[in-house]
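Sharing a chain and its predicted structure for anyone who wants a worked example. Both blocks are below, sequence first, tokens second.
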Amino acid sequence: MEEIIEDLAPSEPVFCIDPFELRASAARFMNFPGRPLYAVKCNPHPFVLETLFDAGIRDFDVASLGEIELVESLFGKAAGQFFNNPAKTRPAIRKASELHGIRFYTADCIEEVEKILQEADLSDELIIAVRLATPGKDARYVLSTKFGASADEAARILQHVHARGVKAGISFHVGSQCLSPGAFGTAMTLAGKVARKADVPISVLNVGGGFPAPYPGDSPASLQHYFSHVIHGRQKLALAPGYMLLCEPGRSLVATSGTVLLQVVVRRGNSLYLNDGIFGTLQELGHPKESRPVRLLRNGDRPEKRPAEFKIYGPTCDSNDVLGASFTLPDDVQEGDWVEVGMMGAYSLAMRTEFNGFHASNVVRLTG
């Protein structure tokens, strides 16, 4: 990383993408007992998508027309696309169907099912998965507060989908950064109850995302432990012949592939003002429970002072531009030093802004 700073002499943040880490993560998900779909929202950079595709991830979880168009621009019809946003606009459904040939959709209410049936081209076979709400108590970010039908509602929606002559499926999401493999087993048990109550053929089972990244302070089990709960739970469901088993990894596929290099603009006591913050690539670090590995980089003398805790502020004039957790760095950190923040591949590039006139990061592809 020191060489990158020396070569670029940057004045703005630098975001580094490591293709080796992407390929290694993709290889682990090739052991999933079904089809892994990369959640494009997590990091939509074309280099990330291309590297994952070349490593065997050929299907994508897309949530908008923009993501659909991005994937098709890179891979044409060679990539599978699954429109899994439960709340879609009519023009997006119509264009996804007519222009891009998408046949797989997700809904969590009858109104959304009807919208899909009214706007999609019905000349080809559709599949509509019903999003089921799950507890999410073992996840850092609970995702069932916005999307997901209750068990009783999901059964009724499945019956409605089947009655309309469309193949039905069940999907759920246990929540982002889920540290309990058993949460997938619990969700699978709930899905089984819904399937039995609906009593219709289940052509798709989508277990969503939630597979965790190994952030500091977290000690996630291996992916195989998560997959084992999916395999065991699948055996309890009455699934239609030729059913599809899907998952939607995002964070766990790309988190370790990203590193951001930030410069110290001002040191004021034990507060550091960096050239990026929560309105840039550090958005997730505004959460007090989020931490990442950090390291001080300096041209010339090596920092040798004892470690100290520093409160971290971003560059904008918004007083909310402050990280939820401190950074531990050598006590002689000073203006002009650089800070390497690791494990930033997930949601950092995707959520950065140019608020207050601060520009987005340079993106560097590491060799590998």
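Comments welcome. The domain at 19-254 is CATH 3.20.20.10 (TIM Barrel).
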